[in-house]
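Incident log, structure service

09:12 report received: a user says their structure output differs between two submissions of the same chain.
09:20 pulled the input from the user's history:
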Amino acid sequence: MPKQRKWTWEETLVAFRLYCQTSFGKLHQHNPDIIELAARINRNSSLSFHLIRRRSSITERIYS
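09:34 re-ran on a clean worker, output below:
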């Protein structure tokens, strides 16, 4: 199994911006906006799960 690539700060910020603009009910792997962003940053559509899982740590880092 290939080693998982770590998220860059820039990728995290772009993903967090999409998270803030998307209602919670639309944060899923079939959302066209998530699919498009995942393709642009060379990630799969599990991006939505990454956003939900990391939202508190991202918010803390942005506002600290």
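09:41 both user submissions now match this output. Likely a transient worker issue. Closing.
09:42 reviewer note: The first helix runs from residue 9 to 21. DSSP finds three helices and no strands in the chain.
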